[in-house]
Each structure stands twice: as C-alpha cells, then as structure tokens.
Specification:
Helix content: 40-55%
Bound molecules: NADPH dihydro-nicotinamide-adenine-dinucleotide phosphate, magnesium ion
Largest sheet: 7 strands, parallel
Radius of gyration: 20 Å
Strand content: 15-25%
Distance between the termini: 50 Å
C-alpha cells in the first residue's frame, strides 16, 4: 500500500488524483492533502479519504483528530513529511518550487504536474535530485508521453522530442480576430478540462512554451532537440524520434487521470477503470500542422529563454504568471499578454541562477517588469 500526499488537492489535477486513488483502494491510501484557501473542500477530502495530515496557506478551525499545518510554508512542510511514499505536486505556479525542493529531500518519488517549478528550478532541482536520489515522474500529458516513449531506446539513440499541442481554441484565428476575444471563449478549451491559469496558457500557447522548457529540464535536451507540432485532436500526446528514423508516439483519449495513474503506478500499469478507452476508428483522422513560430510569440520567447538560460526561463514564467493575473483582473487584453512577457524578457539583465534566492529574485523582477508594462502602456496597476 503506497501512501500518497497530494499538494494542491483541491485543484483540477488534485481532484483527479483523488479519483485515481479512490479507484485503487488496495494500492493507494491518501496520507496528506493541501490547498491555498479552499478549506471546505480540503476538509471534505480529508474526511472522505481519512487523510492523516492537511496543510493550508490560510488558517481555519480544524477537527481534533487530524493534524493541520497552516501558513505560507504549509505545503512545503507537508512535502517534507517522510511518511508519504509519493508526493503529487499539483500546486499551480512557482509557489510549487519550495514544496518540490522539500519533497526531493526525502529521496522518494514525486509525481509532478506543476511545470512552473521545473522551468524556474533548472539546475537547482537537478542538483537536488542527484544529491537525494529522488525520482521525478511527470504527470503533464506531453511529458508523460515522452517519458513512456523514451523507454524504447537509449539516450544516445534519441534524435528529438516532438511535443504535440492542441493549438487551443484560437489556433485557426487571425490576430485581428483575437482582438476582441472574450474571457469565456478563452476559458473554454476544446479538448481538455483544466484549471483557469493553464487554460489561459493553452490559448496563448504559453503552456506549450513552458512545456518546451519543461521537457528540456526533465529529459536533458537542448532547444534544437525539441520541436512542436499542432495536433488538434489531442490523441497523440507527444512523440520521440530515434536516430534510425523510427518515431514512437503515445496515444489515448485526452484524460489526465491516465497520466496521473501512470505516475503513481510506474513502472507497473494498473487496470484502467476511469477513462474512456481509445477507439481509433471513432476518432477517424489524426492531423498534424507545423507551428508558425513568428505568429505565436510564446513559442519564440520560450526557445529564446531556453537558449539563453540563466534567469530568462524564470522571467519568461514569472512575467507570464503576472500577465495572467492582470488579464484575469481585466487590466490587460488577451493579446497584451504576449507583448507584456516579451517586454519583461527584453528588459531583464540575465544572470546566473545558482541559488533559490537568485531564482526568487528573478521571479520578483519579472513580475515588476510585467506590472511596469501594464502601468506604462495601459495605465493599469
Ligand atoms: P488549479 O488552479 O485547478 O489548482 C491549483 C491547486 O494549487 C489548488 O489546490 C490551489 O488551492 C493550490 N494552490 C494555488 N496557489 C497556491 C499557493 N500559492 N500555495 C499553495 N497552494 C496553492 O490548477 P491545475 O490543477 O489546473 O494545475 C496544477 C498544476 O498542474 C499547474 O502547474 C499546471 O500547469 C499543471 N498541469 C495541469 C493540467 C490540468 O489538466 N489541469 C495538465 C498538465 C499540467 P486552492 O484550491 O485553495 O486555490
Ligand atoms: Mg500538457
């Protein structure tokens, strides 16, 4: 019986992880859960699954029979608890970086959905993984696909990783048409049902930009070894091309519970009782299109950030997180996001990232630059 701690259990990935745990009661038990502020759902989850510990950034009255941790560092403290066999990292944003580093110190498995922490954590995360012999198994569907496709050859035999992208809801629209796009349209993704920020990132293609850097971190590849293809059906989750010309692809219906289950059960595979099986005859056509890197600035900026390294990937992420907040607060428009992040990346004086403090500092600078752009160009704070 594996004990699982789910950080960010009240979110989209967190809730689906609990469904996977519930579907395999003889394999998994829920040990700890965490949230930022949604304590009603957090308590309900803890009760239903008889979890032992809960962590929440905001304090609330808590039942006596459960151990509660409160405060800004609550998730980090729960991540550090050595009782759990697997920590699922389903917190959104760079807020997951400290909990990730804390979990790594236990030298066990981290099933990681959060991509921002990998994009920003870079070498620091790598060094910690090596030092503490911890294992990262990706949940993000593209990275899970690549992780599985990589089992078919040695590292030296790999030519390139091919990330697929649904293209989001606006792939076929021109820039002019995007001028007046509403938030409701942005938050309606054609193939995946996800949290608010990643749904926005999917529409701007910043999600794919982050995933390019995430793949580079997870699988130790350079920018030239990673390409992107638009695949609107979201059936092929990503591919690996080998030197002999063979391309291995990973396919299933788009349902995050599948990669979540795999990240928990790896190297084994458990029965699928939750997701619709894939019937290719019902899908019919699978199509692929080249990405216009010039049109989608997010992809271009991501490659630049990856190539330059240093603090630039952190700034790419931090400015995008801040721009997303400004967008949700209706202070900037959909198309402004790209311009705002480009401004921050352009103004940032690149530095080496050799400590957690330097990463958090680059993140702060990114947010300040993004806010500065909104203030200067839009007159909004
Ligand atoms: P959600 O917004 O649905 O959930 C985020 C979770 O993190 C919630 O439990 C939230 O708590 C908690 N949280 C947010 N901010 C903080 C903070 N500062 N400190 C502690 N906890 C916090 O996000 P998703 O589930 O969609 O995404 C989670 C991560 O997984 C992201 O990094 C995303 O990119 C990645 N991912 C998501 C996919 C998806 O299908 N959703 C697919 C692939 C990757 P509360 O509820 O209290 O706010
Ligand atoms: Mg993904």
């Amino acid at each position: 019986m594996k004990k699982i701690t789910v950080l960010g259990s009240t979110g989209s990935i967190g809730r689906q992880t609990l469904e996977v745990i519930a579907a395999h009661p003889t394999e998994y038990e829920l040990y700890g859960v965490s949230a930022n502020s949604n304590f009603e759902l957090l308590c309900e989850q803890a009760r239903n699954f008889r979890a032992k510990r809960i962590a929440c950034s905001t304090a609330f009255p808590c039942a006596n029979d459960i151990d509660c941790i409160f405060g800004d560092d609550a998730a980090e403290r729960l991540a550090a608890d050595n009782e759990a066999d697997v920590v699922v990292l389903a917190i959104s944003g760079i807020a997951a970086l400290k909990p990730l580093l804390a979990a790594i110190k236990n030298g066990k498995r981290i099933a990681i959905a959060n991509k921002e922490s990998l994009v920003c954590g870079g070498d620091l995360v790598d060094a910690a993984l090596e030092k503490y012999h911890a294992e990262l198994v990706p949940i993000d569907s593209e990275q899970s696909a690549i992780f599985q496709c990589l089992k078919n050859g040695s590292d030296r035999e790999v030519k390139r990783l091919i990330l697929t992208a649904s293209g989001g809801p606006f792939f076929r629209r021109s820039k002019d048409e995007l001028e007046n796009i509403t938030m409701a349209e942005v938050l309606h993704h054609p193939t995946w049902n996800m949290g608010k920020k990643i749904t926005l990132d999917s529409a701007t293609l910043f999600n794919k930009g982050l995933e390019i850097i995430e793949a580079a971190r997870l699988f130790h590849r350079s920018a030239d070894g990673i390409s992107v293809l638009i695949h609107p059906q979201s059936i092929v989750h990503s591919m690996v091309e080998y030197r002999d010309g063979t391309i291995m692809a990973n396919m299933s219906c788009p349902d995050m519970r599948l990669p979540i289950q795999y990240a928990l059960s790896y190297p084994n595979r458990l029965e699928n009782t939750l997701c619709k099986p894939l019937l290719l005859e019902d899908v019919g056509d699978l199509t692929f299109h080249k990405v216009d890197v010039e049109r989608f600035g997010a992809i271009k900026l991501a490659y630049q950030a990856l190539r330059h390294g240093g603090g630039l990937p952190t700034v790419f992420n931090g400015a995008n997180e801040r721009a997303a907040e400004l967008y949700f607060d209706e202070k900037i428009t959909f198309l402004d996001i790209e311009t705002c992040v480009a401004y921050a990346c352009d103004r940032y004086e690149n530095q080496r990232m050799d400590s957690l403090e330097s990463i958090l500092d680059a993140d702060r600078q990114a947010r300040t630059l993004a806010s500065e752009w909104a203030w200067r160009v839009k007159g909004k704070k």
